[in-house]
């Protein structure tokens, strides 16, 4: 899962980043309103942690921009300005949650997990597809009750395909979701193939499989 932290206070940003990376999320950041606009315009995220008070703009305007671009990211407003008016405006503009500063990092983890469940997995704590069961919070994958060991990228590929199980996922979208903005430095998508190959091998006993659509991308099929 890919998360964008929009926060201008360096220590707070570092604490949030380390906390979420410990949960094996892919984390990117923006310290200004302008940088945040560039990020949301160029990339897609599962969840955005949004500070309202930015040095060059109001974070609530980013919510308006997300709506204008018809983006579907989950948004948690993280702000020291704990006014009722800001809460109401943020929620009315499409934010999923509001977390006032200061807060415990354990609460941040719980809020992010809740938003990801609602946005990607219809609020379910466990995902069941055929004989495959996934616990998004522990990142465990079971096939017919046998624990399957996936590395972080294999797990992220699988859950991204599950979250988009009714759609064809392009190679570009998959690469950006799993590798983040570092994908801009890649000359090709060859690095995806080895991860897909390994994932397919581990999913051989499963009633789901990853189908390649030549020249375009991948789609998850359930037997």
UniProtKB/TrEMBL annotation:
GO terms for molecular function: phosphorelay response regulator activity; transcription cis-regulatory region binding. The keyword Aminoacyl-tRNA synthetase does not apply. Transmembrane segments: none annotated. This is DNA-binding response OmpR family regulator. Residues 124-222 bind DNA. It comes from the Bacteria. SMART domains: REC, Trans_reg_C. The modification 4-aspartylphosphate is found at residue 51. The keyword DNA-binding applies.
